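Amino Acid Chain and Its Fold in Token Form
===========================================
Scope: a single protein chain, as residues and as a discrete description of its fold.
Amino acid sequence: labelled as such and written in the usual single-letter residue code.
Position: the record begins directly beneath this header, with no further notes in between.
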Amino acid sequence: MDAVELSWGARCAGLLFFGSSIFLVALAAVLLLLRRWPWCSCHVCRAYLTGSWARDFTNLGDWYAHLLRQSPTGTVHIHVLGCTVTANPGNVEYMLKTNFDNFPKGKPFAALLGDLLGGGIFNVDGNAWRHQRKMASLELGSVSVRSYAYKIVAQEVETRLMPLLADVADKGNVVDLQDVFQRFASFDTICKISFGLDPGCLEADMPMSDLADAFDTSSRLSTMRGAAASPLVWKMKQMLNIGSERELKKTIKLVDDLAAVGTNLVVVISSCLFLEVQQVEL
């Protein structure tokens, strides 16, 4: 089939269209770069980007607390991250109570924690959040669940927490109370109530269970996503499955596997109890 030769006008129109397309793509790239690139040169953003804050503080939380104490309004802006940190009681009440619906977590926040938290109550907004909150309130407000949780907490306090603190006091040792109460509340108690698993994190030798270690690592790596100057950084690492994103993927799989085992155990125990109750009633 013979090639059809285009007229001079058609060739010019094609070149004009191609040039316009290249121009629009380049303009979009420049605008995106201007929006994402950390141009801010204030002392807070410079300290964040250069990492100079780490000379005086061991973590971002301590640095933020220092900035908040210095701020006359109790509020600081991290422009390169596009976020605002506040400890002003009036601001907190306004966001969490007075105008709660005006301050959703939003898609960027949900993307940061989505792999770990999924579509749970801590990672959704609007009607999905209201529905899950209502279901959680009904479940946690029941007498049976509260009684069950009370027994577990009382047992954990009596058999592990108090003996551990007493042993530390008798020996004159130093203990990290934040670590102790994290093991008590976040790991042992929650795992027993939610999954029927006993990590045993408050034993005398203070072991760290696989589930607790995996969840702690997943939380830390997910938080690191938000500390990146641009979301393109962690998204690229996620796409290539390298670095912290590769480690995050492994730890989240471990959390899911261990939680699934505990959930299945709870289902089996609940089913057995239900059958026993039926037999007693019959």
Q: What stands out?
A: The chain has eleven helices and two strands. Residues 201 and 208 are 6 Å apart (CA to CA). The longest strand covers residues 75-78.
